[in-house]
């Protein structure tokens, strides 16, 4: 997912990269890739390998034809082989990607997923950096390692985290969604309508008819997902996060967050941030 990315000032979001050969002609059954850097945006592309990517820091967004997924720090994105996707790696992102030959994980291959991975998988993903995916030949030790990790990942896929937003092929609704996500701090449906050139009534009606939820519900879901990314991923206070996602008071934000996520913003931050960041290893 990260190999095909280019700096945002060079990448075009509408470009179609097609099938990206992560192995670069090699024959490894599994391998890894570490990305550390500034904001990157990929074009639409796919791989012939399954991929699980763990966000050590920063926020990663994955878009498929079915949904827009948010990957907060300390969680992982599962992207099956052959699935077309577009990825945004936001500022100061640090991710570890592990890629598997489809024969190692014959499990779910229909859509992307966000996983709350257990500590063992996180540690193994970091350890896997000693075996880059682009190495020319496999060996018995690495093949056994990735086969074992593949079994663990297949089990983890069963515990999916609901961190996604609907997407739409309708140009009006898609534009409304993009504008909404970019202005969470204080956006209104009237402002969205003016920005994309339709009436508020038309936007409300078309939004619900296309994705089955109201624009207001979409806005709330987008705000909660953004808050889940900001709370553990930045040094911002709960007050600052609540303002960044459009709440006038901390109490209203905390109440809504608890209703949506099952815990308070503070307890969520403590839980997700409890484990120290994993130390990366240099490939090779």
Describe, in plain words, how this protein is organized in 3D.
With 284 residues, this protein is of the alpha+beta class. The chain folds into two domains: 6-161, Regulatory protein AraC (Jelly Rolls, Sandwich), CATH 2.60.120.280; 168-272, Homeodomain-like (Arc Repressor Mutant, subunit A, Orthogonal Bundle). 37% of the residues lie in helices and 22% in strands. It has nine helices and 14 strands. The chain has helices at residues 119-127, 140-156, 171-182, 189-196, 200-211, 215-233, 238-244, 250-261, 265-273; strands at residues 6-7, 16-20, 30-37, 40-41, 44-47, 50-57, 60-63, 67-71, 76-79, 86-89, 93-100, 113-115, 160-161, 164-166. It has a six-stranded antiparallel β-sheet with strand order 1-4-10-7-8-14, with helices on one face. Helix 3 (171-182) crosses helix 4 (189-196) and helix 4 (189-196) packs across helix 5 (200-211). The longest helix has 19 residues, at 215-233. Mean pLDDT is 82; it is low at 1-15 and 278-284.
How do the SSEs run, as a string of H and E? EEEEEEEEEEEEHHEEHHHHHHH
Mean pLDDT: 82
- Overall helicity: 25-40%
- Radius of gyration, rounded? 19 Å
Number of distinct helices: 9
Q: What count of structural domains?
A: 2
Describe the oligomeric state of these chains in a short phrase. Answer: single chain
Give the DSSP E fraction (strand runs of 2 or more residues): 15-25%
Overall geometric form? globular
Measure the end-to-end span.
20 Å
Overall structural class, as computed from helix and strand content, comes to alpha+beta
> Unreliable segments (pLDDT under 50, ≥5 consecutive)?
1-15, 278-284
């Amino acid at each position: 997912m990260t190999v095909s990315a280019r700096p945002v000032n060079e990448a075009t979001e509408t470009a179609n990269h097609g099938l990206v050969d992560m192995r670069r002609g090699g024959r490894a059954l599994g391998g890894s890739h570490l990305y550390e850097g500034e904001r990157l945006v990929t074009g639409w592309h796919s791989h012939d390998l399954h991929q699980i990517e763990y966000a050590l820091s920063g926020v990663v967004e994955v878009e498929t034809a079915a949904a827009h997924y948010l990957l907060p720090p300390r969680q992982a994105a599962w992207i099956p082989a052959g699935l077309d996707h577009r990825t945004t790696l936001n500022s100061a992102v640090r991710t570890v990607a592990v890629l598997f030959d489809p024969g190692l994980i014959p499990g779910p291959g229909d859509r992307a997923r966000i996983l709350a991975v257990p500590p063992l998988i996180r540690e193994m993903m970091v350890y896997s950096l000693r075996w880059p995916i682009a190495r020319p030949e496999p060996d018995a030790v690495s093949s056994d390692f990735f086969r074992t990790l593949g079994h663990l990942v297949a089990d983890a896929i069963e515990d999916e985290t609901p961190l996604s937003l609907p997407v739409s092929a309708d140009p009006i609704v898609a534009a409304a969604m993009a504008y909404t996500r970019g202005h969470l701090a204080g956006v209104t449906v009237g402002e969205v309508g003016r920005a994309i050139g339709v009436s508020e009534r038309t936007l409300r009606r078309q939004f619900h008819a296309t994705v089955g939820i109201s624009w207001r519900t979409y806005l709330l879901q987008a705000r909660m997902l953004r808050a889940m990314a900001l709370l553990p991923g930045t040094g911002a206070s709960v007050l600052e996060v609540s303002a960044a996602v459009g709440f006038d008071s901390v109490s209203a934000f905390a109440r809504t967050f608890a209703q949506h996520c099952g815990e308070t913003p503070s307890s969520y931050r403590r839980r997700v941030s409890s484990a120290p960041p994993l130390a990366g290893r240099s490939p090779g």
